Amino acid sequence: MTTGPLLTRVVPPLPRRWRGGYVFERNVVATKSFWPVYLSVFFDPLFYLLAIGVGIGQLAGDVEVAGTPVEYTAFVAPAMLAASAMNGAVYESTNMFFKLKYAKTYDGILATPLGARDVATGEIAFSLARGAVYSLAFMIVMAIMGLIASPWGVLALPAAILIGFAFSAAGTAATTYMRSWQDLDLVALVTLPLFLFSATFYPIDIYPEFIQIATWLSPLFHGVELIRGLTLGILEWTMVINVAYLAAMGLAGYLVTGRRVGELLLK
Fold first, then answer.
1. Half-sphere exposure of 99 (CA within 13 A, CB side)
2. How far apart, in whole angstroms, are the C-alpha atoms of residue 124 and residue 173?
3. How confident is the model at residue 33 (pLDDT cuts 50, 70, 90)?
4. Model confidence over 151-206: pLDDT tens digits?
5. Please, which residues have CB within 8 angstroms of residue 127's CB and are 6 or more apart in sequence?
6. What is the pTM of this model?
7. What is the secondary structure of the chain as a DSSP string?
């Protein structure tokens, strides 16, 4: 007697569809009553834009980008959009820690036909979706304020989604290595310097040379440069590097997350 038919009756195959979507749908249902809390992360970059971009912008004057003078507020706004995508993705991805260590959510999920890669896909997609919602809302604010100066600015939303993918994948991968709640403090320790030193408020050529080199390694810098170029209509070949960097970061995070979930739960 073979075990194939018996296994099929006990664990029926899932419909042919995106299997990570089951994890995504589970997260949507589980968090639908917490959306007011999620809005708090969106307001951080918005307040920065209003306080620094609009306030200091009156004193700073124009900033030169690729030889083109740009109003300071229009210079800062794309960086705030990139930061909004980063914050939404990262802070949602760290919610995986509770489900992994305490709620044992994934133990139940992996008892179904879903695998570790499906968990990684669903969690990253949900974190990315949160970042995308923040980015869309922020772009609406930018459009109302007249801070999207080029038709290429419509591509800023896909660019922000790419940023969300990179940071959500990296965030979920990092979360699988966390041992206690205290490790969550490291999130701010990483994201705050990225936010401050990714050519967010000043052009990169103002920094000392050694900081410029470090800034080029910042994933948020690549996101800022990409979105800034699109919203201002200043397109350069280096934007290809920006896209490749963020895509590679997201892919690496996805692979690490799937492997780590399997190592932790499928022993």
1. 22
2. 9
3. low
4. 898 999 999 999 999 998 998 899 888 888 887 888 888 888 888 888 888 888 88
5. 88, 89, 90, 92, 93, 164, 167, 168, 171, 172
6. 0.83
7. --SHHHHHHHSPPPPSS-THHHHHHHHHHHHGGGHHHHHHHHHHHHHHIIIIIIIIHHHH-EEEETTEEEEHHHHHHHHHHHHHHHHHHHHHHTTHHHHHHTS-HHHHHTTTT--HHHHHHHHHHHHHHHHHHHHHHHHHHHHHTT---SGGGGGHHHHHHHHHHHHHHHHHHHHTT--SGGGGHHHHHHHHHHHHSSSSSS-GGGS-HHHHHHHHT-HHHHHHHHHHHHHHT---THHHHHHHHHHHHHHHHHHHHHHHHHHHH--
Contact 106, 13 (CB under 8 A): no
Pull the structure tokens for residue 14: 């899932």
The better pLDDT of the pair 266, 118 is held by: 118
Comparing C-alpha atoms, which of 182, 162, 144, 137 is closest to residue 230?
162
* Among candidate residues 235, 261, 82, the one with its CA nearest the CA of residue 156: 82
For residue range 118-130, what is the model confidence (pLDDT) as tens digits?
888 888 888 888 7
| Dihedral sign for Cα atoms in the order 102, 103, 104, 109 | negative
